[in-house]
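cron nightly-structures :: item 1 of 1
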Amino acid sequence: MTKKVEEDVIEQLEKITKKRKKGVNPKTKGKRGETYFAEKLSQVTGLHFHRIYASGASVGQSNSNKLEILTQAQSEAQLGDIQSPEDLKYYFIWESKNYEELDFHNLININCSKQLISWLEELEYDLESALTRMKNNYRQVAGFLLVKITRRGSWIIGNIDYISKVFPDFQLNNNYLFFRHEPRENLKKFGFGSEYFMTDFETFIKNNNEVLFEIDWEKVKKINEAKEALEKIYRGEK
C-alpha cells in the first residue's frame, strides 16, 4: 500500500468514526424512546398512551409550586414523559430513558449505577411533586422508570414497597433484579422504601395489565352523563 493510499484509507476511517460518534441527537433518541414505550403500552392495554410534549418545561424544581394552581389535566401534561388515559383509576408518572449503554455491572454494587440513580431521581422529583403539590389530584399516584438500551432490551423500574402498597396484587416477572437506593425524605412519608426492582418492561405490563390499568367506570359514567346533558342543551331539550 502506497503512502498516499494509506493516508486516504485513514482519512476515510476517521470520517466514518466521526459519523458514528456523532450518532443520533440525544433529544431525538429520547423522543423515540418515549414513543416506543407509549406505543407498547397502547398495544398491550388497548388504551391510548402518548408521549408528553415538552414535559416538565414549566414545573421544574425552581417553579414546581405552579402545580398547586394547575388543573388535573394541566398537571398531568407536565410530569413524566408519557401521558396515560384519563379514565384510568390510577394516575401514572412514566419517566422514559433511551440510551446506547448502561453500566449494568454496577447494579449489584453498593452504590449502584450512578447513571441509573440519576434517572431515578428525575422520576422521584416528579412523584414528590405529584404527591405533595398537585392539589387537584383525585387519583392515587404510581410511578415507574422505563429504560431502553440499544440492542439490549427495555426494562421497568419501581419502588417495591410503594408499588406493593398501591397495587397489592401486582406480580414480578420470573427474572428480576433488586437494588438499593435511598428515596427522597418526602417520599418515605408515602411508603417509599429503599429497595427497587428492575425487570423486563413488556413482560411486566402484560402480566399486570388488569392490575395496573383498571378503568374508573364511575368516572366514565359521569363523563358520559355530562356529555348527554350537553347534547340535550345543544338540541334545545330540557
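cron nightly-structures :: done
The chain is about 45% helix and 20% strand.
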